[in-house]
Design goal:
Mean pLDDT: 84
EC number: 3.6.5.2
Bound molecules: guanosine-5'-triphosphate
Helix content: 40-55%
Shape: globular
GO molecular function, one term: GTP binding
Distance between the termini: 63 Å
Number of domains: 1
InterPro entries: P-loop_NTPase (IPR027417), Ras-related_GTPase (IPR051065), Small_GTPase (IPR001806)
Keywords: Hydrolase
Protein name: small monomeric GTPase
Amino acid sequence: MSQKRFTGAKILVLGGSGVGKTAFTVRFITKRYIGDYAPNTEMLYTHKMVGSRDEVNLEILDTAFDMPQETLEKHVRWADGCLLIYSVIDKTSYQAACTLKDCLLQLRGSNLPLVLVSNKHDLLTARSVSADESTNLEGGFDCPRFQISVAEGQEGVTQVMEELLVLIKRELVKALTSPPTSPDATVSGMEKKSRLYYMKKAFKKRVVRSRSDIL
Ligand SMILES: Nc1nc2c(ncn2[C@@H]2O[C@H](COP(=O)(O)OP(=O)(O)OP(=O)(O)O)[C@@H](O)[C@H]2O)c(=O)[nH]1
């Protein structure tokens, strides 16, 4: 993520096979729904979002579900924020999302900006993931959830991305304003204090000495 100003972000798109990761990404970038893509391919997209005040350069990594664990871990460490997608008509994709969520928690803790997306809500009559299960998936993360249909419209996709960018921005501000927490930082803080104390003492001594010189 770019420092000081929010000028760019790296977004990771994760989810089980065939949940609509590519459809989502392409819909967001081109505003079009394209039905068929080569399955299981990883692709890095770049996209410039031009707002009223500034530009944000996004890198969006659309992943393949069957990537090796090592690759997954590398991607998770790379990301500023993550979209975790599952399909409401596919139970295995829900289970995959649960596993991926545990991996995110383990590698980045609960402060990785994350949005959960339940996709294919145009096919709700064939639903196989219950509303309760969707709520459970959130456990461990304080993250927003969206129910969308990439096939049916642009609105849900835009809302998801806007929400994720808000979370990423918030995390950036937090990182820039919170004091360093490492033990080294505490020691150097204490060192600074004691150095200041001795400087004050030395300064007082010199003032007293120079007064007595005058007298
Ligand atoms: N009905 C419906 N179909 C969708 C929706 N989103 C995606 N699809 C379809 O689901 C299939 C898989 O979509 P992809 O975007 O390729 O899914 P993916 O997660 O990238 O798939 P892999 O890369 O193979 O893991 C395609 O045939 C899409 O057209 C949706 O909201 N509704």
